[in-house]
């Protein structure tokens, strides 16, 4: 397609931010939400954008994630709400395994007032955050450091994680597909997340609503392997039914 001037401005706005809500775009372009919705639909059909419930983002890739520094700023308010909801549910004096991701880093910040936590993580950023809480013990997994996001991955990391059995695994994910599969991009990271899930008594998934219907190459697990899911908006069809069938406890974090 040949985008019109308004659609070009829309594309530029989304490319500058990585993602945007329909309401934000309508305000920016000074048009109705219905007009934006039509434009987004046409642009997504042309492969120029990807749609999700209530918004749009850069086109999905099944093989490569959005750059870390872009992800840091995407859905920041929603991630904060999710993090606070998770922190309220995490008791003091428990053990946690925390994986790689900007949402889990937000959770680490929300846990700064907790005491008696023992945290094992393959995320250097999480370790750096929680190491400032002198009432918590932080254990960093060994392995290969991935420079782009300070994640620790590889077989040595998997072997390290297998030493432990913790109360709760707190994990983030890159995408949840319509078949209920949880997906990510790097198979080495996936192997570590699978080990984290296998060595926890409960698995809690924290993910913002943009991850529903987002595709990625490698399957991590299925919703049936999750005990609780924390998100910032009501999941779109068919995920509410899938969660109910899998007996996953769903918590939608309220507005700040």
What does the model show?
By secondary structure, this protein is of the alpha/beta class. The chain folds into 2 domains: 5-59, Winged helix-like DNA-binding domain superfamily/Winged helix DNA-binding domain (Arc Repressor Mutant, subunit A); 69-252, 3-Layer(aba) Sandwich (Rossmann fold). It has helices spanning 5-17, 22-29, 33-45, 68-73, 76-89, 102-110, 124-130, 155-161, 187-198, 239-245, and strands at 19-21, 50-52, 55-57, 95-98, 118-121, 137-140, 144-146, 151-153, 166-171, 175-176, 181-184, 200-206, 218-222, 228-231, 249-252. It has a 7-stranded parallel sheet, sandwiched between helices. A hairpin with a 4-residue loop joins strand 7 and strand 8. Helix 2 (22-29) crosses helix 3, helix 6 (102-110) runs parallel beside helix 7 and helix 8 packs parallel to helix 9. The longest helix is centred in the first third of the chain and has 14 residues, at 76-89. The N and C termini lie far apart (40 Å). The model has no long low-confidence stretch (mean pLDDT 91).
